[in-house]
Amino acid sequence: MGERQSLLLIEADQPSRDFVRRALARLGFTVTLAQSGVEGIGQFAPGLFQLVVTDLHLPDMGGLEVLRKIKKSSPETPVVVLASNSEVSDVVQALRLGASDYLLKPIEDETVIEHAISRITEAETLAQENREYREKLERRNRELRDNVEVLQRDQEAGRLLQQHLLPRTPYQYPAGIEAAYRLVPSLFLSGDFIDYGLFGERFIAFYLVDVSGHGVSSALVTALIKHSIMHLLREKPLFTHLDALHDDLLEILQTINRELLATRLDKHATMFVGAIDSRARKLHYAVAGQIPTPALVTSQGAEWLPGKGRPLGLFEQGNWQVLEAALPSNWSLVACSDGVLELFSGDLLEREQQLLNAIDTSRGDLDSLCSALHVDTSDPLPDDVTILTLRQS
Fold it and tell me: Degrees (nearest 5) of the Cα angle 254, 335, 219?
């Protein structure tokens, strides 16, 4: 009863008043007595009493009026009404006006009073706990909103940084070769990444990588891959000699594989890496677990290029193969991350066939293909979607 020590008892009947007062005193209350409604209203003030007990039959005013005035002045103060069996209708009205409980006179057992007070105490304790819980929940919600805002700002900064690391699109290279891409993350940041560049006047090297997972961690791995490749290019003169192209492509895959295994980030990646020999009209490429494989579009139509090899970051040896494909005078090369397959229905083979049909219909044109796949719509995507195209016409 530590939180409910002060109580106002409004009762004109002395025997009843004395009995109730003694019972309340034994429960730990300091009881203030009033013998009329006017006297009780005069002594009441919000916050002064933790509980009010009032008789419904008072000499100067009705107990219901006393209840109305107390509730108007202090809605949170619990009020218990005393009534006789003949005043049951007044009891119902009192409960409608906000009375917490009622006791029927004559009261001959103190446990009746104790039970009523216990019910009110438990209800007040529960109400206080609910208020504290709501306040705590509101604080947590405010903190969560603040944290979400910080996270959104950080992710937006990360998105801008990731976009800054991407190459320009479209980009024209010598011999009329154009490189272009569309990268649409399912979240703020993408686990997909692409890059391309000219080496000397003859070789155009490129890659598309798809890191497992989503969000910040996957995006950071794409930055690590970009850094590793750039560091390798600074150390060695890659893509400068025709007879070294195969070794150059394998070294890139081996370097990324070692980096992912060493970081122990529980991340792996699929990758398509290649180099176009513009002078000999030939594509040299390797596939590291990439699904779907790249598609080559010629006057004969679109077809998947063969290729196999393990994903990066899972095995010490990837068993990658460097393959070659002759390029006619007019061709398009289309590489997609596996998120593109999520835009179709059916099993994997059916989805790959639908994608190949769309590539064939678009003739490898990036804008036409993205329009046919509805890549640029505002609808959320189930996975990161990246499409890389290289073409010569």
Answer: 60
Cα of first residue to Cα of last residue in the chain, in angstroms, is 90
Please tell me the number of Cα atoms within 13 Å of 43 on its side-chain side: 19
Q: What is the pLDDT of residue 135?
A: 86
- Residue 208's CB is within 10 A of a number of other CB atoms, namely 24
Give me the residues paired with residue 104 across strands: 83
Distances (CA, A) of 260 to 51, 269, 272, 321, 367: 69, 9, 16, 20, 33
**SS3 call for 178:** strand
163-177, 211-225, 328-342, range with greatest mean pLDDT: 328-342
Angle between helix 63-73 and helix 88-97 axes, rounded to 10 deg: 10
Q: Provide the token pair at 290.
A: 């990439």
Residue 311: CB atoms within 10 Å: 19
Query: How far, in Å, are 38, 69, 71, 129, 234 from residue 303 at the CA level?
Result: 97, 87, 82, 67, 35
C-alpha 50/C-alpha 38 separation (Å) is 19
363: its two tokens: 């003739």
Closest to 271 in 3D by CA, of 286, 281, 260, 250: 286
pLDDT by residue (tens digit) across 150-207?
666 766 666 677 778 889 999 999 889 999 999 988 777 788 999 999 998 899 999 9
Contact 202, 269 (CB under 8 A): no
Of 93, 101, 94, 97, the C-alpha closest to 121 is 101
Lowest mean pLDDT among 212-226, 244-258, 295-309: 212-226
- Global pTM reads 0.64
* Residue 165, Cβ density class (10 Å: 0-12 exposed, 13-18 middle, ≥19 buried): middle
Q: Which residue has the tokens 């959320």?
A: 380
Q: Which two tokens stand for residue 220?
A: 């950071």
Number of H helices, E strands in the chain: 9, 16
Cα-only R_g, the chain:
40
